[in-house]
Amino acid sequence: MKIYIIDDHALFRNGLIALLESKQISASAAASPKQGLIEIPSLSVDIILLDLRMPQMSGLEVLKILKTKNITIPIVMLTTSTQEYDLRSCLKHGAQGYLLKDMDPDELVDALDEVIKGSIVVAQDMRYILAKALRDELTDNEPSFGSLTSREKEVACQVSSGYSNKVIARELGISDGTVKLHVKSILKKLSLSSRVEVAVMVTQKGYCK
């Protein structure tokens, strides 16, 4: 295994090289993002370990540049940041891993082995943050009853009561055709496929109490 490190802290950089070599892993490094960006296109390595917090250019910026250059070498962030935003941003822009600098050396080596096999790796201490981020994203993307107009909400509530289009039209003082258009719009906005699904969603969420 050959590792290339981009990290501006000499002490950490040299210590990591020594650690990896003690595990029979070949390692070399760049002391700055600029040096790394110059050298990487001509390198033959298995993984790039990229620091996130660097003064001249952030690791995220380096990651974005490397991806625009179609670099196919797996890039793993190695950082002290436990911020959800950093984790999400790095994975979103193509990092194949997000590891912490204070992790156990053997765990680091195991994680690098997994990257070689094609896995996306996240430090143990960050997995709960990743789970939360994914949960929040799913919640954010959930179809929202609030996206309906006032009239569509009225129609949806009538649908949830099991009323036909004719009954709904009479109750709301509109035509059957208008009810049909509202129902079609409701299905589209809520990403549903039937009136039954509308009724179930409205009832479960208690939107029409």
From TrEMBL:
Ranges of residues in domain HTH luxR-type: 141-206
UniProt cross-references to SUPFAM superfamilies, sorted A to Z: C-terminal effector domain of the bipartite response regulators, CheY-like
Pfam families: GerE (PF00196), Response_reg (PF00072)
InterPro entries reported in the protein's UniProt record: CheY-like_superfamily (IPR011006), EvgA-like (IPR051015), NreC/VraR/RcsB-like_REC (IPR058245), Sig_transdc_resp-reg_C-effctor (IPR016032), Sig_transdc_resp-reg_receiver (IPR001789), Tscrpt_reg_LuxR_C (IPR000792)
GO biological process terms on file: phosphorelay signal transduction system; regulation of DNA-templated transcription
Superkingdom of origin: Bacteria
GO molecular function, one term: DNA binding
PROSITE patterns documented for this protein: HTH_LUXR_1, HTH_LUXR_2, RESPONSE_REGULATORY
Annotated ranges, domain Response regulatory: 2-116
CDD domains: LuxR_C_like, REC_NarL-like
Keywords: DNA-binding, Phosphoprotein
Residues where 4-aspartylphosphate is found: 51
SMART domains, A to Z: HTH_LUXR (SM00421), REC (SM00448)
Protein name (record): Two-component system, nitrate/nitrite response regulator
Gene this chain is encoded by: narL
